[in-house]
Amino acid sequence: MIEKVLIANRGEIALRVIRTCKRLGIKTVAVYSDEDYDSLHVKQATEAYHIGEASPAKSYLNQEKILEVILSSGADAIHPGYGFLSENSDFATTCEKNNINFIGPSGKSMDLCGDKMQCKAAMLKAKVPTVPGSPGLVKDVEEALKIANDIDYPVMLKSVYGGGGRGIRIVTNDNELREGFETVTSESISAVGKSAIIVEKFLEKTRHIEYQMCRDKHGNAVHIFERECSIQRRNQKLIEQTPSPVVDQETRDRVGELVVKASEAVDYTNLGTAEFLRADNGEFYFIEINARLQVEHPISEMVSGLDFVKLQIDIANGEPLPFKQKDLKMNGYAIECRINAEDTFLDFAPSTGPVPDVTIPSGPSVRCDTYLYPGCTVSPFYDSLMAKLCTWGQTFDESRTRMLTALNDFYIQGVETSIPLYKTILNSEEYKKGDLSTDFLKRYGMIDKLTEDLKKEKVEKSEAAIAAAIVHSEFFKSRIQKNSSSSSNWKYKLD
Ligand code: ADP
Ligand code: ADP
Ligand code: MG
Q1: Strands 385-393 and 333-340, sheet pairing
Q2: Which residues form the signal peptide (predicted)?
C-alpha cells in the first residue's frame, strides 16, 4: 500500500495531488527548482527537495535526480501530474524496475499511447473510428504532398510525438505544406528530441470532445463521461465544460462504449483521457489518448462526485474499481476556465513577473485550483497556467453565471490574464447557445468583442469612479463640518 508519494511536478497540480494525499494520511515529497523555492507546493508537502536549476531540463525533467530523491526520501510511489515526465514511458519503466509505484499506466501502454500513429492503428483494429489520413508515417515532404492532394486540403500535419498543441499545423496548399513540414519537425525535435509526421484530414467546424477513461489492474473499465473542450487558442484548450451540449444520453453511452474498448485496446490502467473530434455531422473520430491526469479533471470530479487522485492511488494499489458503469451518475453542469498569465492582445504571449496581490474567488460550488498567493511570482520558465477556476450548477446557466461572478471576483495584480476574454466569451450568445467549435474565437470574432467590452468597461468605470468621488467628497465634507463644529473638543484633545 502506498504510504509516501513523491510528486514530480510543480504549480497547481502538485498542490492538487498533495491535498488528496493529506486527506488519505499519505506522506508527500515535493521537489523544486531554483525558481520554486518559495512555492506553495514546497511549503505544503511533508518534505521537499531541491533538484536543480530553473530550466525544466535541469530540474523537473531530470529523471536521474528525481529517482535519486525518490530512493533517498523513502517514497514508495510517484505521481507525475501532467506535462513534464507524466507521459515519458522510459521514466515509468525505470520506476517499475526500481519497485516504485508509478501512479499512471504501465510504461508499455504509455509507449503505445504516446505515439499518435501506433495508437491510431490500435484503435482501427479495435474498430474505434479515427480521423482519415495517412495510413502510416510519411517518410518525406513528397509523400506528404501526395497524400494531401489525395485526401484534399486543408490537412493537418502532426508529429506523432506532439502534445499540448505543439508539433501540429493546418496547411491549405502545397507551399504551406512544405513550410509546415519544416516547423512541425523542428518543434517536435526541440520538445522531445525526435519527430515523425502523419497527415490527417483537417475537420472543419469541429468540436473537441473527450472522455474520461478509467481501468483497474484487473481489467474492469468504465468511462466517467465526456468533457467538451472546444474553446481553444492555438489548438490548446481555454474553457472546458461537462456535459457537452451536443452529447445526449444515447450518444454518451454509445461513444462511452468505444472508449472502454479503446482503453482495452492499449491495455490502459489508471485514469486517462480519450480525445475525439466531433465533426459537424455528428460523427466522432478518435484523435489521441492522454496517458495521465488531465488538466481539466476537476469538472468531471464535480459532476461525478469522485476524487480522481484518490481513484488513481487506489488503482495503483491494485484495488478493483468500487463501481460499475451503471453506478455512475452525472449530476449537474460544470465549467472550467484556465486562468493563464498571458496577453490576449499580444497573440496570447506569456506575461510573467511578481504578483504582489491576489484575491481568489470562492462561494457555493466554486473551486479554484491555484498556486497563487499574494507576493508570489509567475515564472517565465514554466506553463502560463496560474489557476483553474471551476464552477458547478444544477443547470448550465447556474454554472455559467457562477463563473461570471467568480471571474469578476478574481483579482490578480501584476500580470496580464485571460480573465477579461473569458467574461466576453461567457456573456456571448454563441456560448450561451452552446454553438461551440475549435475555431470559436475566430469564427465569432471574440477578440474584437473583447476590445468593445473593454472600451465599454473603461467608460463605465470612469463614470462610476467620478460618481464615487462625488459621494466621497460629500461624505468628507460633512465629516469636516462635523469636526469643525466640535473644534473646541479637538483643540482640547490636541493639547
Ligand atoms: P495535442 O497532442 O497537441 O493535444 P491533438 O491531436 O490532441 O494534439 O490536437 C489538438 C487540437 O488540434 C484538437 O483539440 C483540435 O482542436 C485540433 N485538431 C487536431 N487534429 C485535427 C484535425 N484532424 N482536424 C481539425 N482539428 C484538429
Ligand atoms: P493536451 O493539451 O495535451 O490535450 P491538457 O489540456 O491536459 O492536454 O494540457 C497539458 C498541458 O499542460 C501540457 O501540454 C503543457 O503545456 C501544460 N503543462 C505541463 N506541465 C505543466 C505544469 N507543471 N503546470 C502547468 N501546466 C503544465
Ligand atoms: Mg490533445
Answers
A1: antiparallel
A2: none
- Measured from the Cα of 237, ligand 1's closest atom is 14
Query: What pLDDT does 487 receive?
Result: 52
Find the mean pLDDT for residues 313-318.
98
Closest atom of ligand 1 relative to the 163 alpha carbon: 2
Q: Specify whether 292 is catalytic.
A: yes
Distance CA 187, CA 108 (A): 25
**What domains can you pick out in the chain, each with its CATH number?**
4-103 (3.40.50.20), 132-201 (3.30.1490.20), 207-450 (3.30.470.20)
**Entry pTM:** 0.92
What Rg do the C-alpha atoms of the chain give, in angstroms?
A: 25
Catalytic site residue from 16, 207, 215, 292: 292
Q: What are phi and psi of 413, to 5 degrees?
A: -85, 140
- Confidence band (pLDDT; 50, 70, 90) for 162? confident
266-303 confidence digits (pLDDT tens): 999 999 999 999 999 999 999 999 999 999 999 999 99
Q: How far is the CA of 335 from the CAs of 238, 304, 315, 388, in angstroms?
A: 11, 13, 27, 10
Angle formed at CA 79 by CA 78 and CA 84, multiple of 5 degrees: 110
Q: Is 449 helix (H, G, I), strand (E, B) or coil?
A: helix
Give the Cα separation of 261 and 122 in Å (integer): 10
Ligand 3 centroid, distance to 320 Cα (angstroms): 28
State in Å: Cα 79 to ligand 2 middle: 15
